[in-house]
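Hello,

Our lab assistant flagged a job as stuck in the queue for most of the afternoon. It eventually completed. Since we weren't sure the result was trustworthy after the delay, we are filing this so someone can double-check. Below is the sequence as submitted and the structure that was eventually returned. Let us know if re-running is recommended.
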Amino acid sequence: MSTAPPTRSSASRSSASRSAATTNTSTPSGVKGTRTTGPAGTPSPTVQLDSAEFATGHYVDRLFPDDASLEGVDVAAENLRRRLQVVTQDIRQLLRAQSNDNNKQQAQSLEATKAAIGELYTRISEMKAKARTSERMVLDITQDIKSLDSAKRNLTHTTTTMKRLQMLIGAVGQLRHLKEQSKYYEASQLLLAIGGLREGFAGFGRVRQIAALHESADGLQRGLASQAFQEVERGFDSQGMLVGDARVMRDACLCAQASLGDEQRDKFVAFYCDLQLRAYSAIFQINDDVSQLENISRRYAWLRRILRNYSDDHAAVFPEQWRVGEALSRRFSEATRDQLGEIMATREDISVEHLMSALADTLAFEAQCNKKFAIVAKSPAGDQSSSELHVYEDSGEPAVTFTGAISCAFEPYMSIFIRGERAKFDEMIRKFQREPVSIDNDPSLSVLASSTDLLYQFRESLRQCASLSTGQPMVDLSQVFSQCLCNYARDVLVHKLPRITSSSTTALDDLKNICLIVNTADYCASVVGQLEQKVVEKVGSEFKDKVSFTACRDALLTSINTSIRALVAGVETMCEPAFAALTQVPWQSLQMV
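-- returned structure --
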């Protein structure tokens, strides 16, 4: 833009601009159909405002290209305000028109949606009606099928029941015929079949004919069991010897078990055991010499002979699964236990030797029975604290061990063994007390030989007691050990301590003896712990807390202290004359020592 003074030509251009602005003012901006081109063919301001490529700076430069054109600023601004009002009014009209159109379209859409929903509801109702109709048709069809199925099932069950009833009637009649002919094996097989058939008629107890058939079958079973038992009874004479046919008797046993089950089996086994043990009761009577403890081995020899006779001659009579030999041994054990208990209760002069010998034979017999009938101990898996279970080695079924079956009768009388051991130990201690220490003074020994002898007897007594009983008798024996060690410490060790005087000629030997006694007491005190541990390992778990050697351990420690004090006193006594002589020496007159 030039700053020179305006010339004539510039004045003319200013006049033209004002006339143009006047012309634009007279024509509203933004109305189509107005000027579309400006001077020199440039786009009109209206077209520029409507353009998407509108630039404000260029627009202003075109409106006011020079200083003279600035005179029309107010007019241009007014035109723009009017144009803004017109555009705003047009926008409002367009918005109102569009809103009215939208409302009409929404109303139309809502009506169309309602119509579609109504049509859909109608179709769904029609489908539900058709579904109910189809369901009724299916129910009618399935009801007929169910009725036919029930009829078929009932007809099949009735046919099967009638066949079973026919078979049961025939089996009962055949069983009656077999009973009359004493065909026990065939009858036992038929009884199993009858049992299976009768299970199918468990709910027909109210039918009179079937109830009568059951009663008939029960009567035949009882009759067969009684007839089979009589057959077995006739097969043995009064001495228990086999006189009948072993095969027929075995079939009779099977038939009896098939008739009445385990109850009838127990009856047969009890009969045989009573028959065989009848002679045992007659031979071994309480007041006879052969029944006393010193002859107990004869009882077991008698049973071994009976079992051998059973294995050779009678085993073919009874089924193997009945374990008749084991049952006979158990009945023998019960009778022997009761009789031995009565014998020991009435006798007052039972010797320890006879008691221990009888108990040892009994324990050996029980072990032999466990081995013969394959009864083994089995610890429960994962539980070391539980007691052992016993099973049959061949089948793994639970079993009852023979251990303790007879030996339990000796348990109340083990005090005789304990008293005998106590008397033996007391006699040994009295003997040790009478012997001088010089007898034990062996240069190769560091302790008194009497201590090793006593502890050796303890070990032998413990071993013997463990083989007989691991209950209260072993606890009592441990108390005997403790008391005897206390007596040994007091009556032997402390009692043998010499009194050393200044005039004694054997003072040095006496000191050696005291040292030997100290070593002996210390050795015994160390062995006591091992002995206590050994007893705890062997005794039953419920008696472990009752084992204690504290008293004898304290007595041995006391004897050690007493011996050491005697040793110190002896040394002081031996050194006393030399110390007295030293006091008489004129040390002040001596120049050299």
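-- support follow-up --
The delay was a queue issue, not a problem with the job. The result is valid. The chain has a mean pLDDT of 81. The two ends are 146 Å apart (CA to CA).
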